[in-house]
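In this section we turn from sequence analysis to structure. A common task in structural bioinformatics is to predict how a protein folds when a small molecule is present, because the ligand can shape the pocket around it. The inputs are simple: the amino acid sequence and a SMILES string for the ligand, here flavin-adenine dinucleotide. Study the lines below before reading on.
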Amino acid sequence: MKKVVIVGGGTGGTITANILARKVSREAEITLISNTPQHIYQPGFLYRALGEIIDESEIIREERKLVNKRVKLVIDEAVKIDIQNRMVDLMSGKKLEYDYLVISTGSRIVPEEVPGYEVSYHFYSLEGARKLHEALERFKEGVVAVGIGGIPYKCPPAPAEFCCLLDYYFTKRGIRDKVEIHYLSPLPRTFPHEAVAEAITEMMEKKGIHWHPMFNIESVDPEKKIVNSLEGESLRFDLLVMVPPHRGAEVVEKSGIGVDGGWIPVDKYTLQYKDYSEVYAIGDATNLPVSKSGAAAHFEGKIVADRITSEITGHEPRAKYDGRVLCFCDAGFRKAIYMDFNYENPPKKPRFSYIWYLGKQLVNRFYWSLILSGLV
Ligand SMILES: Cc1cc2nc3c(=O)[nH]c(=O)nc-3n(C[C@H](O)[C@H](O)[C@H](O)COP(=O)(O)OP(=O)(O)OC[C@H]3O[C@@H](n4cnc5c(N)ncnc54)[C@H](O)[C@@H]3O)c2cc1C
């Protein structure tokens, strides 16, 4: 019996475990290690912050209920990944050997890396989203600045999307004319891909959202309520929403398998780690040149499950990741855009429409079933 160990039970890890359970549970023991018994749907944080989701059971489920019964789910923290000895050490003191390892530990946020961060808010954790919601509900007038504390971060459209949704939120509250919304973009445009940036810029300008190019946040002055950029600009705010800097998981950094901020270097097609062909990494944990997104984790998980299945059943692994990412960006007022691209084909200029708003709702709904099971 081969042993497959998957570290990290979020989007990518759960999908990979479920596909492997269906394909090779007779030939292999599949173990999924998660440091939490809960699975949280992170795109829901945005809506929790804006008060569109109040009942958190919409975005939280028990991991056990989401994984195939043939997957051995271990709720424990991986504290060391020893790839020389093919071993994962757990906080409880247990050690797990493996023949194949999939690392899907995602990313962690490190707000403390920005001096003065403590006066800002974010929607990159459930706790953060709850606090931001309270701050928004108290907000009556003034300047809201939305910026980015470091690159890379999860879901590149999220801060621009949040600005558009703020416009919708304040309009619904009847105070839009009393609020200035400023988007501090770390790039010379509103989005990494030029064609998409064009559509987002047009939407922001239509909504009267001020956007500042090349504003990489360096520090915040908590007393004066001023946010400063590396490029030497400053903006005074009444409410600051900042995407916190991200790093790879602690276990990755401590095990010495991450580079430049704890991201795992993998082959961009096979997703294998260096010369260790039995070690794969997927999703946010990697240093791949694709968006840190659930969609990428999803597609990569399918590729890795396919490759491990081939190896276990004695076939040449042929599946390769083509860099596919798809994503939606909600602009409020029931309009959204949709992008689908890969390493070779950048996205085309998208159009905001009701259809893509519905598309986003469908993804939110089917995440728990069709997506996490790996059936789509
Ligand atoms: C506000 C927001 C909006 C978003 N919107 C979108 C969107 O619209 N579309 C989209 O595609 N993506 C979106 N994303 C991004 C998406 O949620 C992530 O990119 C995706 O969850 C990454 O999947 P992953 O499997 O790599 O990591 P995760 O899903 O984060 O899972 C990692 C798991 O590993 C666990 N873990 C970490 N360390 C250890 C350890 N040492 N031992 C055991 N377990 C460990 C963690 O607890 C976690 O459960 C959004 C994210 C946010 C925050």
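The longest strand covers residues 325-332. As an exercise, try to locate the residues that line the flavin-adenine dinucleotide site and compare them with your own expectations.
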